[in-house]
Design brief:
homotetramer, 189 residues, Rossmann fold, 6 helices
Chain lengths: 189, 189, 189, 189
């Protein structure tokens, strides 16, 4: 049995759809329990994230998957507020050797999504985690990883309704990432 | 006459000291007017920065210098909240062709400070700005750029009192950056 | 009068087409002289780039635009060999205050092109240059910046013939970058 | 039994010393066999790395640790030439699920070493590997990770003789990284 937590911020609902796809992928692996955790603006007081219960839940997980839209060249500030609030877990290295992975969305094919994934990676490194790559070549008939990302899952969404974007291909990409992390989490136990 | 604005977040006061040094450097150039603007937690509501007056002040500047401590592998969340709130200026490309530069502080010689400066650079690029390098070789007798940074000014501070850290060398590095940006801002007018 | 040099490596000819477009854009600005310089494998001996004449030409330029395909998550090794060979110009800071910009190509919409542009930026920073953003919003009717890049020009090409890829939109993106750098180079003189 | 390969380029011998320390750490774990592989300039023809035997050796490894000095803001070109030559292994995803880690050296405390480690990470991601963090907090009495790096091992060396730099603390940091990767490689089998 291994626990995979997905923690994400979603502004307009698109990232939530992708987070649900990642969870679906993780939950499809037998022996996996999942937590799908949304970062709420209400939990941010003067720029500081204060929901300690969420952080405890992550402390108990075997793998943590980070998700946020790319806003202004990096992860949404709400995600960063959460990240800054993990300093206690960092100081005690509670996440050491856990698996980490990530996903992000923006309105352009490239945008600065690689920069957001790089931040997720650096953040995970500071927690002494292991970073799991997406593991899917682009150019497949099913459209998985159509944007061509290696460090995590990328999806495209702008002002469209959330039942249209992210599209089926991007959600399938998220599912594959969730399943991959789940499988590796079991192997690492 | 050119206007150089320094906008920064400081958690424990160290980044404020460095910001003051940057301002001192910029103000030392004749023909320059400076704004030293602190990002306040009170201006962040549910994770969103709401002080439109600050953003208007930046819209009117010729150069903008960004500053934040490196927390958990990136700029402090409070800075990111400010960055996300510039989306209106971005959409209208109000900062196009302005100069940009940056500085950051963390508790270790390297830390993830380069990652924070890279974020500042990507953020400035999305605003169609020009990024100004630090312009100082390390290894000089006066200790300027002792940490060896190219993309902006780096300083070292952890739990020390703010009259001890950042030290004189790091503050001089900040001054040099401020003066450099100011000189180039005049040239670009 | 200002000199804009474009220095690039092209493996299969696609990056050369984009480099020509960048040059066309720069040359379209009156008062600009351009150098279009290809990095040749023959000039790399045991992994070291040895063409000093090229580096002297860059020393005499007002702006330098870097171009390379993204191979295995970064600029092609041939470009990096050239970059490493600029250590003399770096030591003497001969490129200080020159303008810099960049472009890259890969086979997927995102790929790791942002990483290549970030390298170009860091490299330019070490030379104490000023980095010029692309300056074009994506989503325009003419298709300029269709991939959504801020730090430089991105184009798409894989195994297609070089008269097909990069396509007209990507070449127009390159032209715009060349013209932008040229205009700013005149302003900086 | 698991195989850990260390592949590195060393220009002046400092990176070789660090590579040997990493190997020592890996070899100290029982059940581990190591390969210490130097990238030679002689194997680079017109900028292309041609030693297929090395790449086959890596194809057979369980973990691969990358090492290069940071030259002009990125990994030495010779390392990049090697990286570009792994395109066949990449196309066939022969390194999928292998562990990866990295180390780098430059002459200044920060320098652009984080950028080099980020490149290693992106490169490993494209090979669908798992990236192993350094896993050591800075500020320890033994001086391990004295520069404050999370994504890999960083060391300091400039023009000093190779019996002086990297120093004992930096070599111990390398050893710790080697041992960490080796332990995780056994766990993953």
């Amino acid at each position: 049995m291994a626990i995979v937590s997905i923690i994400y911020f979603s502004g307009a609902g698109h990232t939530e759809k992708l987070a649900e796809a990642v969870k679906k992928g993780a939950a499809s692996i037998s022996g996996i329990s999942t937590n799908l955790i949304s970062i709420k603006g209400d939990d941010i007081l003067n720029g500081r994230y204060i929901n300690e219960a969420v952080i405890s839940q992550l402390d108990e997980s075997d793998a943590i998957i980070f998700g946020a839209p790319t806003y202004m060249s990096g992860p949404a500030a709400q995600f960063k507020a959460f990240a800054d609030a993990t300093v206690g877990s960092w100081f005690n290295q509670k996440w050491k050797d856990k698996l980490a992975a990530g996903f992000t969305i923006s309105g352009a094919p490239s945008g600065d999504k690689q920069g957001t994934l790089q931040f997720f990676q650096s953040f995970a490194m500071s927690h002494s985690m292991l970073w799991v790559s997406l593991g899917e070549l682009p150019g497949q008939p099913d459209g998985v990883n159509r944007l061509g990302s290696w460090g995590g899952a990328m999806a495209l969404a702008s002002q469209e309704p959330t039942d249209v974007a992210p599209n089926a291909e991007d959600k399938l990409t998220g599912e594959k990432l969730g399943a991959r992390v789940a499988g590796l989490a079991l192997k690492m136990k």
